[in-house]
Request: fold
Amino acid sequence: MDRSYVVHIYAVVRVPVWVHASSPTKAARKAELVTDLYKLLSSGEVEYSEQITGFLVDEIEDGKVLRSFDISPDDVYTLTPYEAYDLPVPDSWPEKVETAS
Reply:
C-alpha cells in the first residue's frame, strides 16, 4: 500500500559573488559574509548546479509527520525509473527504434 510523503530535495545552487581578498579562503569567507542568500534564493537569481546532496523524506498521515528519513543520493540513484514507479523492468531493450522518414 502506498503512503504519503513530502520530499525535501537538497539541491546545490551556484551563486557568483565578486570580491577582492588576499587569499582564496578569505575570498570565500568574504563572499559568504556579504551575500544575502535568502534574498538571492527567493529572487531566482541563482543557477542550479545539477547536484543534489540529499533528501529529507517526511512520512505523512492525517496531515501529520509520522517520521522522517534522511536519504543519500547514492541510495536513490540505485533505483531505475521503472523501480521508482513500481513498474515491471523490461527484460531487454530494443536494438534500434525505427523512425518515420
Q: What stands out?
A: The radius of gyration is 21 Å. The longest helix spans residues 24-34. The helical segments are 24-34, 37-43, 73-76, 81-84. The first strand starts at residue 4 and ends at 14.
